[in-house]
Please model this.
Amino acid sequence: MTADPFGLDAVTVDSARARRGVKWSGVEGRLAAWVADMDFPIAPAIRDRLVEVVGNDVGYARWPGIGRSFLPAMFAERMADRFGWTPELDHLVELADVMQGVQLALHHLSEPGDGVIVHMPIYHPFLNSIASMERRLVEVPAQRTDAGWAFDYDELDHRLGAEPACVLLLCHPHNPTGHVFARPELERLAEIVERHDLVVISDEIHAELVHADHGHVPFAALSDEMASRTITVTSSSKAFNLAGLRWAILHAGVARFREALGALPNHYFGAPNVLAVEATGAAWRDGDGWQRAVAARLDANRRLLAQLLEEHLPGVDYVPPDATYLAWLDLRPLGWDGDVHDELRARGVELSPGAQFGTQGEGFARLNFATGPTVLEAVVQAMATPPTSR
Ligand SMILES: Cc1ncc(COP(=O)(O)O)c(C=O)c1O
Model:
């Protein structure tokens, strides 16, 4: 066995540039560290299964139910093994993507004008959904403390008395800060949820990317009361880098939401994609070796990034994330004149502009470090060079 059996460390700028997805092909030659796709080669178990299926038959699949694949049963087992959470099989619905689940839940559990609580800054499609669905954003701002990112729940609790909300939309773990909500913090949130009679939409897409020094507690696993108030939405797509295949799963813990879904016609959601289902099945059956190697590479990269920043861009504030491969960087200390995104582009790099994640993100950028160490080094070095194009 080589030291790098999955070719993770071997990713170079050239090999990454040859990738066809939007991350590298949409950036006009800049170094890409933006959208949340990893640059690593696909897990061999997934590639082999996809090749086998494509070489055999991509017609209608033989599955346990019409429009329902074998994945819900595997998902329930995986959640029990990994997180001690036992989803109810008949509360699971397969979807094409996680944001579809978030919108569906918002649509059925709130009305235009209703307040939706969000930890800010936040994964920007949450903001777009809330705005386009005419819900009211209730912000819980992140505070930078010596220990990392924190949120003031006394203030939230107090505010909800005067400014009611009906949904807590949780990004758990949190994108972009990489904050993991630990059990005591979740229990504090659960108290608030119960006192203010909220429902929770918990997007747990990054749950399997929690670093080893932290643990993931599904919100629905906190108590029976929280289970009955929570819609969980997640996917294999982040942990196994399958975003283009489109498959997600929703657990409808809220009875009135299940009733609303049950009243929809059979074909409302379409059926899952055969290749996405097969890829996820292979990932969950045989992909854990690849995933462990990826976790080790990401852990090394979150530390390497700290060293690189100290060496090339001292002053940039960076809290190594507890989960994910996304680094939330405060670039304001660099004192750049222009808009951060323009400044980065002028240095030949593409990061996600912090302002996308809400006004609190102005002067910040989100850097994706799911790549080989040489690429990460090239990205940080480029950020530290004088601008060459405007
Ligand atoms: C928190 C979060 N939710 C949802 C998504 C997107 O999932 P999907 O493409 O399945 O909608 C992402 C993608 O990065 C994400 O970070």
User: Anything to note?
Assistant: The longest strand covers residues 136-145. Residues 123 and 175 are 6 Å apart (CA to CA). Residues 36, 97-99, 123, 171, 175, 203, 205, 235, 237, 243, 248 surround pyridoxal-5'-phosphate (CB under 6 Å).
